[in-house]
């Protein structure tokens, strides 16, 4: 901004992120390309008010982001909520296989959703840690962005900011229709189009 002759205070940027990141995610959702039926599910930790909370994340076998949820707890209910949200996303397919770590919450949540018919009878849950290397690597971009900030001051601000991080990462991966991987001009054009801005 300064290079363009505009002086903007960091609190202004913060307010923009809080206001527009959730809106950007909402507007991008219909344009996200479909993913595969092989899921990698895991959680990482984010500091909010000096306490660690869980960020549930999932990618498919090609590294495309399926979905994400910030949760104050790491238990069966949180895992079930995350899986339900991911299943409901318009760009995801019913999983043929879900790879998870040894967290005991996943089998319980998986079996409940399978019994309720949310997951196909042929769906399989695999608890093999090394199969989740893809999602572990994908967590790194979140850690690079959140670590310098040393945490968030509220759950709401953390969630809004993370929505912005995640949707921009999906764009960078080339997961949004009409925007190729690494196409910065395409990303700018899409955001402008979504918000009705002339560029």
Automatic annotation (TrEMBL):
Species the sequence originates in: Ktedonobacter robiniae
Record keywords, A-Z: DNA recombination, DNA-binding, Transposition
Name by which UniProt lists this protein: IS6 family transposase
Signal peptide region: none
Pfam families in alphabetical order: DDE_Tnp_IS240 (PF13610)
Ranges where the Integrase catalytic domain occurs: 26-189
Keyword DNA-binding in record: yes
Source domain of life: Bacteria
């Amino acid at each position: 901004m300064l290079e363009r002759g505009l002086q903007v205070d960091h609190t202004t940027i913060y307010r923009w992120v809080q206001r527009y990141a959730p809106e950007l995610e909402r507007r991008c959702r219909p344009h996200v390309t479909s993913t595969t039926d092989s899921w990698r599910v895991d959680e990482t930790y984010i500091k909010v008010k000096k306490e660690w909370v869980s960020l549930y994340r999932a990618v498919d076998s090609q590294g495309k982001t399926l979905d994400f949820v910030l949760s104050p707890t790491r238990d069966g209910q949180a895992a079930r909520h995350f899986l339900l949200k991911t299943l409901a996303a318009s760009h995801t397919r019913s999983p043929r296989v879900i790879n998870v770590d040894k967290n005991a919450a996943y089998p319980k949540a998986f079996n409940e959703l399978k019994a309720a018919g949310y997951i196909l009878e042929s769906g399989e849950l695999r608890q093999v840690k090394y199969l989740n290397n893809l999602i572990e690597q994908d967590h790194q971009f979140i850690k690079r962005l959140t670590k310098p900030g040393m945490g968030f001051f509220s759950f709401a601000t953390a969630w809004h900011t993370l929505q912005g991080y995640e949707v921009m990462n999906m764009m960078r991966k080339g997961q949004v229709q009409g925007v190729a991987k690494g196409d910065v001009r395409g990303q700018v054009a899409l955001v402008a189009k979504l918000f009705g801005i002339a560029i």
